[in-house]
What we know:
Elements: H1 2-9, H2 13-23, H3 28-49, H4 51-59, H5 69-72, H6 80-90, E1 100-105, E2 113-118, H7 119-135, E3 144-148, H8 157-165, E4 169-173, H9 179-192, E5 196-200, H10 201-213, E6 223-227, H11 233-243, E7 247-253, E8 257-262, E9 269-271, E10 276-281, E11 294-300, E12 311-317, E13 319-320, E14 332-333, E15 338-339, E16 343-345, E17 351-353, H12 354-364, E18 368-377, E19 380-387, H13 395-406, E20 411-416, E21 431-433
Parallel strand pairs: 3-4, 3-5, 5-6, 6-7, 18-21, 19-20
Antiparallel strand pairs: 1-2, 7-8, 8-9, 9-14, 10-11, 11-12, 12-15, 13-14, 16-17, 18-19
Amino acid sequence: MEPVWTALTGASLLPAWAALERTQYLPLPILRDRQEQLLRQVSAAACRDTAFYGRRFAEAGLGTELRSLDELRKLPILTKRDIRAHAPDLLSRRARDQRLLEFRTGGSTGVPLILFISEEISHQRNAAARRSNLWTGWKIGEPVGAVWGNPKLPRSVKQRLRHELLDPVIYLDTMSLSPDSVRAFAREWRRERPTMLFGHAHSLYLLARTAAECGIDDIRPRAILSTSMMLLAQERQVIEQVFGVRVFDRYGCEEVGLIGCECELHGGMHVNIDHVIVEFLRADGETAAPGETAFVVVTDLINDVMPLIRYRVEDMAASVSGPCACGRGLPLMDRVAGRVADFLVRADGTQVAGVSLIENTLTKIPGIEQMQIVQEALDRIVLKVVPEPRFASESQPELQRYFESTFPGARVEIEIVASIPRESNGKYRFAICRVSL
C-alpha cells in the first residue's frame, strides 16, 4: 500500500528511508566523510542564500562554504535569541516561493521559536524516525498507541486515508490523563491491538502507574519508545515492569528533528549523523571529553530552507567513546542530563542538574510519587511534592535537609500538591530555574 501512496502523492519518504537503512552499518570514517560532504552543501547554500550567514561567514573570515569540521568550529554558536532576532535573514531566498511547513517551539521564556522546513525535509526527518522505530521490533504499518499532549488528529480526507491505511494510531491525550481516560485507552487498545507504545517519557510512566492501579494488565506492546523528555531510571523501571518490555529512549527536537536513539542493545543513543553534526562543548567552547556532561550544539545538514549551523539547543548531554556492539557505524551519545534551564544554581555559582536531584531524592526518600523543583531565587527553592499514601512524617524533614545541604544558605519550601502542572504541550518539567546567570 505504501509504494502506491508514494507514487500517487510524490512523497519521498520511502527512498529516503531506504537510503538510511543502507548507511547505518557503514564504518564511521565513511559516515564522517558523508557528513563533511553534506556540510559543504548546506553551508554553501546558507552563505549564498541567506543574509544572516552571508554576514556571519564574512565576520568569521571564512569562504563561501565550510569544507571540514575544523572550519565549522570557527563559526560562532547560534542561539535561540539569534533566531528570534534574525528570523527573516535566516530564511533562504530560494525558499520564499516554496510551500513551507511552519513549526513553533516553546521554551522556558514562553516566547516561541518560529521555524520553517520544506515537505522534502519533513520526509527525510520522518525517514530517520522510521529507521529508529524499526530498531525496537515494530514493523511498518502496525498500529501505534501514542501518549501525547494535544495530539494532531487527522482532519482532511488525505490525512484520514493515510491514518487508516498507513499510520494507524490511537491516542491518550496527556492533557487529560486520568483513570477514566486510561480505561478508555485500554478499551481502544484491545480493539486496535497496537504493537508499539510511544510517548513522552514521564507520561508513559504515569500511564504505567495508573494502569497498574486500575488493574489493567493487557496493554502489552511489542516495543516502547520514549521521547521528548528525560527518561529517569526509576521511571524506566516502572514502565518496563508494568508493560513487560524494554524501553527505547529517543532524543530530538522540533528545530532539527531526530538527534539520537537507543538500539536493541541499549548501550547509549546512536547519533543520527546522516542528518546532523552534534558537538558536546564545555562552557569555554572547547570539546568535552567522552562522558563529560556538556552543552549540545547541533548543525542541521539537510535543512537548506532555514539553516541552523552550530545551534545550541539548550540541552546538556555527553558523548560515548567507542562503537556499539550492534555493528552500526553511527556513534553513541549518553542520555540527556537536562535542559540548560533545568540546571539549578548554588550561591557560589556552581550548577546542579535538576534531574540528578530528582533521581537522588526519589530513590532515597520514601513516599514521593512525583516532584518538581522550582528555584525562584538563589536563596529560595520550592519543592512541589505529590505524596504517596505512605508519605511518612519523617520524609518531609529528610527532603528538607537534603536540599538545604545541597544549596547552603537557601530557604527550602515544601509544597504538597495533588499533581504537577503540565506545560502547554502536555509535557512535564522536573526542574525550573528562574535565576538569571
